[in-house]
Design a protein that fits this description.
The structure holds two protein chains of two kinds.
Chain A (H helix, E strand, L loop, with lengths): L1 H17 L1 H20 L6 H8 L4 H16 L1 H13 L2 H6 L5 H17 L1 H11 L8 H25 L7 H16 L12 H7 L3 H15 L4 H25 L4
Helix pairs in contact in A: 1-7, 2-4, 2-8, 4-7, 4-8, 4-9, 4-12, 5-7, 5-9, 5-10, 7-9, 7-13, 9-12, 9-13, 12-13
Chain B lengths: L1 E12 L2 E12 L3 E5 L6 H8 L7 E6 L2 E2 L4 H5 L2 E4 L11 H12 L4 H11 L15 H13 L5 E5 L7 H17 L3 E6 L2 H7 L2 E6 L2 E6 L1 H8 L2 E7 L12 E4 L2 E6 L2 H12 L4 E7 L3 H9 L3 H5 L2 H12 L1
Parallel strand pairs in B: 3-8, 3-9, 6-7, 7-8
Antiparallel strand pairs in B: 1-2, 1-4, 4-5, 9-10, 11-13, 11-14, 12-13
Classes of the chains: A mainly alpha, B alpha/beta.
The structure holds adenosine-5'-triphosphate and magnesium ion.
Chain lengths: 255, 317
C-alpha cells in the first residue's frame, strides 16, 4: 500500500526540510565546489579550454559533473538515516506494524534523492552568478532532474545496501570513502577522459556518473544530448532499487 | 477465548537459549504480567510475539493468528509500548500519530487520534515537537499510538521504568482504564512486584528463559510465598516452639507459615501468653515469591543504574 511508503517518505522529507544544518550543507557544499575547484582552471588559456573541455568556461564544464557528484555524495545520508533509526529503536516501531521492509528501504532511498535534488536549483542559480549561461528549457530542466533523480536513487540504494546489517555509526563514513573518491575520479564529471589510462577509461565507461555528466553536458552546453544515456541511468536506478528491496526484505533487522 | 497462546516458543542466539520452550495462555481481556530477573528472556519473548524476531522453535497464536504463518494479520491486531520511549522527536505529536496510523492502515485516524489525545489530556500539545515533551507525556503519546489501530492485544515492555511515583500511579490507572474502556488484552513485563500485584490478573515468572511459575498473584503467594509471624519474647532464648520453619534469634521467633491468621492462635498457645512481648505479621508478597523462585534478591535485580541511564539517554537523544 502506497500509504505506508508515503508516511515514511514524508518523515524523511520533513526531517530534511527542518534541519538547519542540512540547509547549510546543501547550500555551501556545491557552491564551494564551483567557486574553489571551478576557479582553479580560470587561468588556463581559452584555446586550451576549448580544445579539451569544448567550452571556454571550466565552471560550465564541471557544473553537470558536480551535479552528478552531489547525487553520489548524498547517498551516504540514506544509510546514516537507516542507522539512526536502528540506534534509536524507531525501526522497531515501524517493523512491528504490517509495513513491508522494502518500504523502509524505498523511503530512505527517496529521501536521499530528495536531498540531492534540492541542490540542483541552488547550483543553477550560483552558476549563473559565476557567469555560466546554459540552455535552460522545460525539456532540458526536466531531463536534468530526471537523470539526477536516477543517479540519486541508484547511489542511495547502493549505500543503504552496504549498511543494511550494521548499526555502527562509522559504517557510512567508511563506505563513502570507499565509494565516493574512486567513482568521482573515474568518471568524466571533472575531467574529460582524453588523458585517462586504459583501465581508468574502462571504469569510466560503466560509471553512472559519467553517463549523467555527459548527458547533461550535452543537454545544457552543446545542445546534443545522448538519449540512450538516460536509459542507462534509468536501468542503473531500477537494478539498484530491485536489488536493494530484495536484500532489505532478506537481511534488514530492527537492531 | 484466548488472545495469546504460546506453544513451546523458543529463541536461540547461536548456542545460547534466550527463551526456552515456553507455553502459556492469556485470556481475552486479561492483564498478564511477565516477571523475571534481568536477562530472563522477557523482551525476547515480546519480540517474538510482535514479529520483530522469528522464533527458533514453537509458535504462538495471537488474536487467532499464528505468528509464523500470518505475521501480517498479527501485526495489524497488536499495539506495542517499548521500555525506551520511541518517538520521532523532530516531529510533532500529531505527525507521530499520523505516521503510526498510516503504517497500521487506520482509516479514520484523525478522529481517533483527536479522541485519544483528549482522553489522555495531551490534545493541547498535539502540534508541539515531542522532543520537548516530559517523560510522562511521551508515555501517554506512546500509549495513544499503540491504541490507534484498536488493537486486540497490547505488549508493554517495562511500561513504568523511569517514571516518578506519581506518574507511575497515573500509568497504572491508565493501563487499567485502557484495559477496561478499550477491552484490550495486555501483556506487560515489569521489575516492580507491587506493580504486577496490583495490575495483573495473572503472572508468569520467567527465569533463564523458562516459565517457572504461573498463576494469579494470590495463587503464587500461597504456593511459593508464605506469611511470617514474628514474636518478640519476654525472656529466654531457649524456647522450643515446636514448629518447623521457626528461627529464634535475639529474643525473637520468626515462623514461616502458609497463612498467618489461621495459625496465629496455635503459635501463641505453643509459646505461651506470658512470654510474648509483641507480635508482628508479615503477609506474603510477590517479593517473597520472586526471591524463593529465582534465588536472587529483588534489590539486586530491580535497579541497574547504568543500564537505566543508558536507556534514558538512548530514548531522549
Ligand atoms: N540479539 C541478541 N543476540 C544475542 N543475545 C541476545 C540478543 N538479544 C537478547 N539476547 C540475550 O538473551 C537473553 C534474554 O534477553 P532479554 O532482553 O529477553 O532479557 P529481559 O528478560 O528482557 O531482561 P531485562 O529485564 O534486563 O530487560 C539475555 O541474556 C540477552 O543477553
Ligand atoms: Mg527487557
Amino acid at each position: 500500500m502506497m500509504d505506508r511508503l508515503y508516511a515514511l517518505y514524508m518523515r524523511e522529507a520533513k526531517r530534511i526540510f527542518r534541519s538547519v544544518y542540512m540547509w547549510i550543507m546543501l547550500i555551501s557544499q556545491p557552491i564551494m565546489w564551483l567557486v574553489f575547484f571551478g576557479s582553479s582552471f580560470s587561468g588556463v588559456p581559452s584555446q586550451v579550454l576549448t580544445s579539451f573541455f569544448h567550452t571556454t568556461n571550466y565552471i560550465a564544464f564541471i557544473l553537470p559533473g558536480e551535479l552528478s557528484i552531489s547525487m553520489l555524495f548524498v547517498g551516504m545520508f540514506s544509510s546514516m538515516s537507516l542507522i539512526q533509526d536502528k540506534r534509536f529503536g524507531y525501526l522497531k516501531r515501524v517493523l512491528i506494524t504490517p509495513t513491508p521492509k522494502y518500504d523502509v528501504f524505498l523511503a530512505k532511498t527517496l529521501g536521499g534523492m530528495t536531498r540531492g535534488l534540492l541542490q540542483v536549483p541552488i547550483l543553477l542559480v550560483a552558476s549563473y552568478f559565476l557567469g555560466v549561461r546554459l540552455d535552460l528549457t522545460p525539456l532540458s530542466l526536466g531531463v536534468l532532474f530526471l537523470s539526477l533523480a536516477f543517479v540519486g536513487i541508484g547511489f542511495s540504494s547502493l549505500y543503504s545496501m552496504f549498511t543494511l546489517k550494521t548499526a555502527d555509526w562509522q559504517a557510512p563514513g567508511v563506505i563513502s570513502n570507499l565509494i565516493n573518491l574512486p567513482l568521482m575520479f573515474s568518471s568524466t564529471a571533472l575531467f574529460p577522459k582524453a588523458f585517462f589510462p586504459g583501465w581508468l577509461r574502462a571504469i569510466s565507461d560503466v560509471n553512472p556518473l559519467t553517463y549523467a555528466a555527459e548527458l547533461n553536458r550535452g543537454m545544457l552546453l552543446y545542445n546534443d544530448p545522448s538519449w540512450n544515456y538516460l536509459g542507462y541511468l534509468a536501468m542503473f536506478a531500477l537494478v539498484m532499487v530491485l536489488l536493494g528491496s530484495i536484500l532489505t526484505n532478506k537481511y534488514l533487522n530492527a537492531e | 477465548m484466548y488472545s495469546i497462546e504460546t506453544e513451546n516458543l523458543t529463541k536461540k542466539y547461536g548456542d545460547f537459549v534466550a527463551v526456552d520452550h515456553i507455553s502459556f495462555k492469556v485470556e481475552k481481556g486479561e492483564i498478564f504480567g511477565l516477571l523475571g530477573p534481568n536477562g530472563a528472556g522477557k523482551t525476547t519473548t515480546i519480540k517474538m510475539l510482535t514479529g520483530l524476531t522469528p522464533p527458533t522453535e514453537g509458535d504462538a497464536v495471537i488474536a487467532g493468528y499464528s505468528i509464523r504463518k500470518n505475521p501480517i494479520e498479527v501485526k495489524s491486531r497488536i499495539g506495542w509500548i517499548s521500555s525506551e520511549v520511541i518517538l520521532d522527536d523532530d516531529l510533532t505529536a500529531w505527525e507521530n500519530l499520523e505516521i503510526q496510523a498510516r503504517l497500521t492502515g487506520v482509516r479514520n485516524w484523525k478522529e481517533r487520534a483527536t479522541s485519544l489525545l483528549k482522553y489522555f489530556g495531551i490534545l493541547d500539545f498535539a502540534n508541539r515537537k515531542t522532543g520537548k515533551f516530559s517523560t510522562g507525556m511521551r508515555k501517554k503519546l506512546e500509549v495513544s499510538m499503540a491504541l490507534l489501530n484498536s488493537p486486540e492485544v497490547i505488549f508493554m515492555d517495562e511500561p513504568t521504568i523511569g517514571l516518578d511515583v506519581n506518574t507511575r500511579a497515573t500509568m497504572w490507572n491508565l493501563i487499567r482504564e485502557i484495559n477496561r474502556d478499550y477491552q484490550v488484552t495486555i501483556l506487560l513485563t515489569t521489575h516492580y512486584m507491587e506493580e504486577a500485584d496490583s495490575l495483573c490478573s495473572r503472572i508468569g515468572i520467567i527465569n533463564k528463559g523458562k516459565i517457572i511459575a504461573l498463576g494469579t498473584p494470590e495463587e503464587l503467594k500461597s504456593r511459593y510465598g508464605g506469611d511470617i509471624i514474628e514474636i518478640e519474647l519476654k525472656n529466654g532464648t531457649n524456647v522450643n516452639v515446636g514448629f518447623e520453619n521457626a528461627v529464634v534469634t535475639n529474643g525473637k521467633v520468626r515462623i514461616k507459615v502458609s497463612n498467618a491468621e489461621t495459625m496465629l492462635m496455635d503459635v501463641i498457645r505453643a509459646i505461651g501468653n506470658d512470654n510474648i512481648k509483641g507480635i508482628k505479621i508479615n503477609k506474603s508478597s510477590l517479593d517473597t515469591v520472586f526471591i524463593n523462585l529465582t534465588g536472587g534478591t529483588i534489590e539486586e535485580q530491580d535497579f541497574d543504574a547504568r543500564r537505566f541511564y543508558a536507556m534514558i539517554r538512548r530514548a531522549r537523544r
